[in-house]
Design a protein that fits this description.
alpha+beta; 30 helices; elongated; 832 residues
Length: 832
């Protein structure tokens, strides 16, 4: 299954979105379809073997809308020194190494192919070929013909951005032209319709036939977009905002046409016929004017994603042999050596090979201070090299770069729907048919029970009901606020995976902070070495040799200390890692109390030394050879500068703050005491973290093996972590928050990622959630209030008591204003 976000043009209300959602969801191979009216996007999950973007685009166009797709480009070539060309593709659809072998075999049969390698694990094909004998397009076709899909690394996001920009500019230009013509004609029609008010108007303009001729282009050219609603009504038996407008204005237009050409029909009943050409023309013009302002404002709502897309570099300077060569960013491949000079953008993600510099990562991570880079440092594509020259190896290109992943995540978040939106969608689904029903009922009641001329009263109120109703405001209330909120968050370094996460954040009652890498800097240092027989260097050498193959973060400071002392590593055999406890091999064992207990090694003689370290908040790592302890290593991880302040801030917000750690209770209490946390989860093995989250959610936390809580209240829990072992717990929590300095798997499991690993962003997330939901509720309240209050007024409910009727022209102005007010209210989040 593939999940993809498409841009859609031409939607005017939530009912439009519902129509597209229904027809796309009914396509064979489509698992789910979510259309976000505010973001103008379709988030589709589909089986690539059964359907694709082309079929989805045709279906969307079939109901009168336009789906934007990037043009398929000729793959970008990299010319080698000997005149050959290099090309890299991502190959989609391979299920096993055998698939890769089939593709590779097919490529090697082609003329001009010098070398072809297909890597199943990375789903990439790398080809060196003679461009005089074969083209990149032909190579791409061969891969497609073998049953897989070849995707050249192109800046697809930029293509869509450019295409969307062109389409929006085209729409704004078209709307502007029609609004101007509509305004000119409507003013003339209005003046001609009321000669008793405007005596200076030439007699010819008061002629009904002339008014008919002036109104016709406004009705059918200026208002042409609204007739899509009739197509949808008759073809798919569903209705939208355009249906209401087209029925309402056509009713006024055709009634007026009958008055113009067959006045005797009305005169027979003693009625003085009067046309309503001004009503039809002015309603269409006013609604179109509202659409014009709405389109302009909605363009501002999606600025965040546009800014992110514009960050990327356009070219890269690669080193081929002894020469430097500038190529398009699409042609950069993994493994290329890239040179970046001061002031230039780093084109792709990679690892520094040579040089020292400071890099401005603020546009991606939100961190204002420059970050130092040297050999071995990771660099992020689209960040700016400030001082020195850097030479680095590309590790991620195209859609794999951090910037591309951020854009994808923000796009999907903006395209997704928050639970609160489902209520608005549900109401919108029934809204238009109900309004049509109320309008017909209004017409019948006024026709049979209204004062003379009853037909006129019935028509005016019928049109007013259809025009005043505004599903647009309902449809825009939630998605636009979510869209602006997630965009604003992204610019601060907070990546929100979906809309639901933004809604849940303010409901969180308890938050679990992982100790290592979250509360602490995640860079433990060796502070103490205590030996029991043998000198310190021998013990350190033995410990470092055992830890050399360990992936645990506590192994690093021991290895680093040994390397700094210039010690050689001893040969290790029969190495085995014991999850959450330590490692053992032929040389001995090193780890925590749990490992020593498992191996039956007594710690009685050294217990006081272990306790002393633990009371200082240090982790005691024990080295044993044979059945005897040989040394203890005290390792401390420094608390982050902001940790204490953030814990206070979270408590002030009324949150129950917990710390989770694999350290024993004594160490955990010492560290928790420093940071001001009373609730601890200590001695938790990596595979037990998710279970701990579950217990806290259900209020059964006191049943854990340590006495660490006494509440049975059900809680909405947030989990903050950064490591691979945090991923299950992040997924289990209602809100998973990953630190951006952590692992990819942690970020994939979390609903929110803090790009710069800054704890101060956690209260920011909760605050943004509260403000966004506040705006959503305001929007929904006014949208519901507007429709509930004004539809009865338009139907004439106040006439029997106060003699008040709502002119359809004012109804159109009110309807346009309601949508614009929702858009402008949502844009207030840009200032948060």
């Amino acid at each position: 299954m593939k999940k993809e976000v498409f841009k859609i043009r031409g939607m005017h209300c939530a009912s439009c979105a519902n129509t597209i959602e229904k027809v796309v969801a009914n396509l064979v191979g489509v698992k789910s379809a979510q259309v976000n009216f505010g973001a103008e996007t379709l988030l589709a999950e589909y089986d690539e073997s059964k359907t694709g973007p082309e079929e989805i685009a045709k279906t969307v166009e079939g109901v009168g809308y336009k789906l934007l797709m990037p043009e398929r480009k000729e793959p970008s070539l990299v010319k080698t020194a000997d005149g050959k060309a290099f090309l890299a593709f991502k190959v989609v659809g391979m299920d096993s190494p055998h698939c890769a072998m089939i593709v590779e075999k097919a490529l090697k049969t082609l003329p001009g192919i010098e070398k072809a390698e297909v890597d199943y694990n990375n789903t990439r094909a790398k080809i060196v070929f003679d461009p005089k004998k074969i083209s990149g397009k032909e190579i791409e076709k061969v891969i497609d013909d073998t049953g897989y899909e070849a995707i050249a690394e192109t800046s697809e996001a930029h293509d869509i951005l450019e295409k969307e920009k062109q389409e929006r500019e085209k729409e704004i230009s078209n709307l502007k032209r029609k609004v101007i013509i509509g305004v000119i004609f409507s003013i003339v029609i209005f003046l001609g319709s009321f000669p008793e008010w405007f005596s200076f108007v030439p007699k010819i303009l008061t002629n009904y036939f002339i008014l008919f001729l002036l109104t016709t282009p406004v009705q059918f050219w200026v208002g042409s977009r609204f007739y899509r609603g009739l197509v949808v009504l008759f073809k798919y038996r569903t209705a939208d905002m355009n249906t209401l407008i087209s029925i309402g204005t056509l009713s006024a237009y055709f009634y007026s046409a009958v008055v113009t050409f067959f006045p005797e029909f009305f005169m027979k009943g003693g009625i003085l016929p009067k046309p309503y050409f001004d009503t039809s023309a002015i309603i269409i013009t006013l609604i179109l004017l509202g659409r014009y302002f709405e389109t302009m404002a909605k363009g501002r709502a999606s600025e965040a994603i546009k800014k992110l897309m514009k960050l990327g570099a356009k070219t890269a300077r690669i080193i081929v042999g002894e020469q430097e060569k500038e190529i398009e960013i699409e042609a950069v491949k993994v493994g290329d050596i890239i040179l970046v000079r001061p002031g230039e953008k780093i084109p792709v993600d990679g690892e520094v090979l040579e040089g020292k510099s400071s890099v401005d990562e603020s546009l991606v991570t939100g961190e204002s201070m420059p970050v130092s880079k040297e050999q071995g440092s990771k660099v992020i594509g689209s960040t700016i090299n400030l001082s020195g020259v850097l030479k680095f190896r590309a590790s991620k290109v195209g859609k794999e770069t951090l910037l591309a992943q951020i854009i994808k995540m923000v796009e999907q978040a903006q395209a997704s729907k928050a639970p609160i939106q489902r209520l608005a969608d549900l109401v919108s689904g029934y809204f238009v048919p109900i309004v049509i029903g109320i309008a017909i009922l209004t017409f019948i009641v006024w026709l049979f029970f209204g004062p003379s001329p009853a037909i006129t009263f019935a028509l005016v109120n019928f049109v007013a009901v259809l025009i005043i109703a505004c599903p647009c405001a309902l449809g825009l209330a939630t998605p636009l606020a979510i869209m602006v909120g997630t965009g604003s968050a992204a610019q601060k370094g907070i990546l929100v995976k979906d809309a639901e996460a933004l809604e849940i954040a303010h409901k969180v009652k308890a938050i679990i902070l992982d100790k290592t890498g979250t509360l602490t800097k995640g860079k433990p240092e060796l502070t103490d070495i205590k030996t029991f027989g043998g000198n310190e260097k021998e013990i350190l050498q033995l410990a470092a040799s055992l830890e050399r193959y360990s992936e645990h973060h506590l192994a690093r400071p021991i290895i680093a200390k040994a390397q700094a002392e210039g010690l050689d590593f001893l040969a290790v055999e029969n190495f085995k890692a014991v999850a959450g406890k330590g490692v053992k091999a032929n040389l001995g064992a090193i780890g925590n109390r749990g490992l020593m207990k498992e191996l039956g090694i007594s710690l009685e003689d050294i217990e006081k030394d272990i306790v002393k370290l633990e009371e200082e908040g240090k982790t005691a790592v024990i080295l044993a050879v044979g059945n005897r302890p040989k040394g203890i290593f005290g390792i401390a991880d420094t608390l982050k500068d902001e940790a204490i302040g953030i814990v206070k801030s979270l408590k002030k917000e009324g949150l129950e703050v917990w710390m989770i750690t694999g350290d024993n209770e004594r160490v955990a209490k010492a560290i928790a005491g420093q940071v001001g946390i009373e609730n601890i989860m200590a001695g938790v093995l990596p595979n037990e973290k998710a279970e701990m989250v579950k217990k806290l959610q259900s209020g059964k936390i006191e049943n854990w093996k340590l006495e660490i809580g006494n509440s049975r209240q059900r809680r909405v829990v947030a989990m903050v972590g950064d490591g691979v072992n945090d991923a299950p717990a992040l997924a289990q929590a209602e809100l998973g928050i990953a630190m951006g300095e952590g692992t990819d798997i942690a970020m994939e499991s979390a609903e929110i990622t803090l790009m710069r690993g800054d704890l101060t962003l956690i209260p920011e997330v909760i605050s943004l959630s509260k403000k966004t939901l506040g705006i959503v509720k305001q929007n929904l309240f006014w949208a519901f209030f507007y429709n509930v209050a004004f539809i009865p007024v338009a139907a004439g409910a106040l006439y029997p008591f106060f003699g008040i009727l709502l002119n359809p022209i004012f109804a159109a102005a009110a309807m346009a204003f309601s949508s614009i007010s929702v858009v402008l209210n949502s844009l207030r989040l840009k200032r948060v």
